[in-house]
């Protein structure tokens, strides 16, 4: 058995050491809290100064601009300039015309491109993407070659921001990166590019033909989205050819596009190729028939209700028949003792949903 002999002196020393450690920790917490308070106070004060500067520029223009002593005192600090840049970029999105030009003038006057450019040489993807976004928002044309070099960057965040920049700087021609793209374009990125594109020059439409034949399925799907958005009817035959595509999602989007560009023969033609299409594409066709008010589809829908092997398709067919005004036809099966339980269940399910 080990016996510890601890003297009062040793206990006193241990107590003092512990007390010192506690005091040091308290001081460290106080210093950190004060530092955070000062940072927040600075941010609040800087935000006020920047908001005043931006408002002054928008309301009075460049000629009336003046720098207050407060602004001059902090305007060279890196943290202040970073906040200034961030606020200009976020404010630029809210304005157009002269106001937007005044914001860009502030960006140039205070040489904030230096901060944005410096991010392009960083290692962290979010910093590079941020720099691209800032230079794009401020339309710094000189940055375009550098931004273009990021189209093949390994980071999704970086190359997506670079893709968007190409479109923002060059318009439709900026989508030329689609010719050689190896990775998929995400749904979010496709939507972002689509929203930003406002027109397609007639002489550049040949590019879309190339994209419709791309080995990258996401490029084909994006091209189909373009056709729907801009109602490019001349591509109808090319879209029809995609109903034989090996990828299900491409076929589904081809059906959506054909129905968007439709003519008087579209629905009947789709009914003919219906058996050769994947279930997802068949759903799209039936959904269109449901809202078409085309009584010419009724015979086709009755056949699908009675003969199609997939229950989901049969339910969709029943819903479409109901929408086209054939509820009485559906009710006959419910009252028919010779009808199969499955058919009655399908029709009741469809009627319940509709009613």
Essential attributes:
355 residues, mainly alpha
Topology:
Elements (H helix, E strand, L loop, with lengths): L7 H53 L8 H6 L3 H15 L4 H13 L3 H7 L5 H13 L6 H5 L7 H15 L16 H10 L9 H7 L4 H14 L5 H6 L6 H13 L5 H8 L5 H14 L5 H10 L3 H13 L3 H9 L5 H14 L1
Helix pairs in contact: 1-3, 1-4, 3-4, 5-6, 6-8, 8-9, 10-11, 11-13, 13-15, 15-17, 16-17, 17-19, 18-19
Give the termini distance in whole angstroms. 86 Å
Determine the strand fraction and express it as a percent band: under 5%
Class based on secondary structure composition and strand pairing: mainly alpha
Q: Tell me the quaternary state.
A: single chain
Quick one: biggest sheet?
Answer: none
Taking all residues together, what is the mean pLDDT? 89
Percent in helix: 55-70%
In total, the number of strands is 0
Low-confidence stretches: none
Work out the helix count.
19
Helix and strand element order: HHHHHHHHHHHHHHHHHHH
User: Rough shape?
Assistant: extended
- Report the C-alpha radius of gyration, rounded: 33 Å
Transmembrane segments: 12-34
Protein name: HEAT repeat domain-containing protein
Keywords: Membrane, Transmembrane, Transmembrane helix
Describe the structure.
The chain crosses the membrane at residues 12-34. This is HEAT repeat domain-containing protein. Keywords: Membrane, Transmembrane, Transmembrane helix. It comes from Kaistella montana. The model has no long low-confidence stretch (mean pLDDT 89). Among the domains are: 209-261, no CATH class; 266-355. It has helices at residues 8-60, 69-74, 78-92, 97-109, 113-119, 125-137, 144-148, 156-170, 187-196, 206-212, 217-230, 236-241, 248-260, 266-273, 279-292, 298-307, 311-323, 327-335, 341-354. The longest helix has 53 residues, at 8-60. The protein has 19 helices and no strands.
């Amino acid at each position: 058995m080990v016996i510890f002999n601890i003297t009062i002196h040793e206990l006193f020393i241990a107590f003092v050491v512990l007390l010192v450690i506690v005091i040091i920790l308290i001081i460290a917490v106080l210093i950190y809290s004060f530092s955070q308070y000062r940072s927040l106070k600075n941010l609040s004060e800087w935000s006020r100064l920047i908001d005043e500067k931006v408002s002054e520029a928008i309301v009075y223009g460049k000629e009336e601009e003046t720098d207050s002593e407060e602004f001059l005192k902090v305007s060279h600090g890196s943290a202040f300039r970073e906040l200034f840049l961030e606020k200009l970029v976020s404010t630029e999105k809210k304005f157009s015309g002269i106001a937007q030009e005044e914001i860009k003038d502030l960006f140039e006057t205070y040489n904030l491109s230096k901060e944005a450019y410096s991010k392009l040489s960083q290692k962290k993807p979010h910093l590079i993407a941020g720099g691209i976004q800032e230079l794009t928002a401020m339309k710094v044309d000189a940055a375009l070659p550098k931004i273009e070099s990021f189209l093949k960057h390994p980071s999704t965040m970086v190359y997506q921001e670079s893709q968007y920049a190409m479109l923002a700087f060059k318009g439709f021609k900026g989508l030329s990166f689609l010719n050689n793209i190896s990775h998929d374009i995400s749904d979010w990125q496709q939507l972002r590019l689509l929203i930003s594109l406002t027109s397609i020059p007639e002489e550049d439409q040949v590019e879309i033909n190339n994209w419709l034949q791309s080995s990258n399925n996401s490029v084909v799907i994006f091209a189909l989205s373009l056709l729907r958005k801009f109602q490019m009817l001349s591509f109808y035959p090319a879209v029809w050819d995609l109903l034989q595509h090996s990828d299900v999602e491409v076929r589904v989007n081809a059906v959506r596009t054909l129905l968007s560009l439709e003519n008087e023969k579209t629905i009947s033609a789709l009914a003919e190729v219906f058996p050769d299409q994947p279930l997802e594409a068949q759903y799209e066709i039936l959904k269109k028939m449901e809202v078409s008010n085309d009584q010419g589809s009724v015979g086709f829908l009755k056949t699908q209700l009675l003969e199609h092997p997939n229950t989901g398709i049969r339910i969709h067919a029943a819903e479409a028949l109901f929408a086209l005004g054939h509820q009485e036809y559906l009710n006959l099966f419910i009252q028919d003792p010779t009808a199969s339980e499955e058919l009655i269940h399908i029709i009741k399910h469809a009627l319940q949903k509709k009613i």
